[in-house]
Every structure is written in C-alpha cells, then in structure tokens.
Design goal:
about 130 residues; alpha+beta; four-stranded antiparallel β-sheet; 4 helices
C-alpha cells in the first residue's frame, strides 16, 4: 500500500513539475533594451524616381557601416502611417552617445545628399527604455 501511495505521489509531483516547466517555457519573453531606436517615416517627393528612393534607402547601409555605435538597421517598410507617407526605416544605436555622434557624422552628411533631394517630408522619433 505504501509503495502505491509513493508512486502516485511521485507521479503527481512529476506531472506538476512538467506543467510548471511547460508554462515557463511557453511564456512570452521580451526584452527592454537600453539601446536607442531612431524611427523615421518618409513622404517622397512626387517627382522622385523609384531608383532615387532606393538609392537613398540603400545609402543607410553605407552610413551605418561607417558610424560607430549603430547596432542594427531596418529598411523594409511593411506598414507606414499616415497613408500619405511612403516608406520608413529604423536605426538602432547602442547608446545616447552613438545617437549624438550620428547627427553630425560625415557619413550622415554624405547620406543626406542622397536623401534630402528626394524627401518631401519626414518624421523622426528616438525611443529607449
């Protein structure tokens, strides 16, 4: 009798541990990094060509390779609002110092020569935790 009680208790304990572990591993995990993201939405000039627009977007890769402290970039828009805007991109900076360096960096100034002539309007936001 004792043996069956021990086996049942062990089985119940094992089942409880399994359920707990399943819950822990199934939980949605997310982070709250201290990096800074720079989110830009763009309204292209109507007379700009698709090639000019793509050159401006591709120029972000070149710029990011040259500015220390840029961690990641996102260049493909999947949804942009308001509907009068055409594109968006994101640059992730490792910290505020990197975001500050970006503003007057020669690579940023060179990229602006590609971007500003085809940009009608843009919005930008910097976000962190």
């Amino acid at each position: 009798m004792k043996k069956s009680v021990i086996l049942k208790t062990a089985a119940a304990l094992a089942a409880g541990i399994a359920i707990f572990c399943a819950g822990v591993f199934a939980a949605n995990k997310f982070g709250a990094p201290a990096s800074i993201i720079h989110v830009v939405t763009i309204q292209w000039k109507p007379e700009s060509t698709p090639a000019q627009r793509q050159t401006a977007i591709d120029g972000i890769k070149t710029m990011a390779a040259e500015i220390q402290g840029i961690k990641n970039i996102w260049l493909k828009s999947t949804k942009v609002q308001p509907s009068s805007y055409n594109a968006a991109f994101v640059i992730e900076f490792e910290d505020k110092a990197a975001a500050d360096r970006y503003v007057d960096h020669p690579a940023h100034r060179a990229w602006e020569k590609l971007y500003l002539p085809v940009r009608q309007e843009s919005t930008s936001h910097q976000i962190t935790n």
